[in-house]
């Protein structure tokens, strides 16, 4: 669903054979795969072992990082090039990942990544656009509301206008540009929409606080306004990205 975001950023920053990219919250590796297809040397870290395993299947099918690809569960240090070559681009594309931790936790990870990047390198942060332009925010509000009874850490909250800039400054980075990209979420039918949204991890805390059946019921109800006559589910969204400099 975020392919338009990845493409817009890579095009703007001219990602190619000279790019040494580090992805924070690389997830299942799609963004890294797209960068690698442009010739970039890619590395990624993610806290979710299941998603990281999918990334390994995509990027390291033979389990041999001969092309310089490195994936790890932990901080940027676990994928740093032993030869000492610094990264020259850092991304934190996953808005759920960015919102899941506190700003201080995320800024610490960004600062650690920036310390392993060349001076002047771009660091790209991404997040949801304005709520009124993000149809999926209604479904994600369900996740946050159902998680509240346990005070569980829901992985979504509304995006503030200056959230990305504030996060960059907290990490010691200099904001240098931004953009917005349309990223519609489209599904073949309601079951696919529910499964797809549940797979993001945004509803895990809600399921722990209530139960899976309740989450599925309320999520399905929140998606009905976007169910089209042909049975597909279509939710227009806008994502925002910020380019900051090390």
Automatic annotation (TrEMBL):
Keywords: Methyltransferase, Transferase. Residues 22-63 form the Methyltransferase type domain. InterPro entries: Methyltransf_11 (IPR013216), SAM-dependent_MTases_sf (IPR029063). The keyword Transferase applies. Pfam families: Methyltransf_11 (PF08241). GO terms for molecular function: methyltransferase activity. One of its GO terms (biological process) is methylation. SUPFAM superfamilies: S-adenosyl-L-methionine-dependent methyltransferases (SSF53335). This is Methyltransferase type 11.
């Amino acid at each position: 669903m975020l392919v338009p975001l990845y493409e817009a950023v890579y095009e703007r920053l001219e990602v190619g054979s000279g790019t040494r990219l580090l992805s924070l919250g690389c997830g299942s590796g799609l963004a890294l795969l797209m960068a690698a297809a442009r010739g970039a040397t890619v590395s990624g870290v993610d806290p979710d072992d299941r998603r990281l395993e999918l990334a390994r299947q995509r990027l390291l099918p033979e389990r041999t990082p001969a092309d310089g690809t490195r994936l790890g569960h932990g901080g940027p240090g676990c994928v740093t090039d032993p030869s000492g070559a610094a990264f020259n681009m850092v991304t934190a594309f996953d808005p759920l990942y960015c919102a899941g931790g506190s700003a201080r936790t995320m800024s610490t990870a960004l600062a650690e990544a920036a310390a392993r990047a060349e001076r002047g390198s771009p660091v790209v942060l991404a997040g949801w656009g304005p709520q009124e332009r993000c149809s999926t925010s209604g479904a994600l509000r369900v996740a946050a509301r159902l998680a509240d009874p346990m005070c569980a850490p829901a992985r979504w909250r509304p995006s503030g206008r200056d959230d990305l800039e504030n996060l960059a400054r907290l990490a010691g980075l200099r904001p240098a540009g931004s953009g917005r990209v349309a990223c519609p979420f489209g599904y073949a039918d309601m079951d696919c929409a529910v499964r797809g949204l549940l797979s993001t991890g945004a509803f895990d805390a809600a399921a722990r606080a209530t139960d899976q059946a309740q989450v599925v019921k309320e999520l399905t109800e929140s998606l009905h306004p976007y169910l089209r006559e042909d049975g597909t589910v279509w939710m227009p969204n806008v994502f925002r990205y910020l380019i900051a400099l090390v």
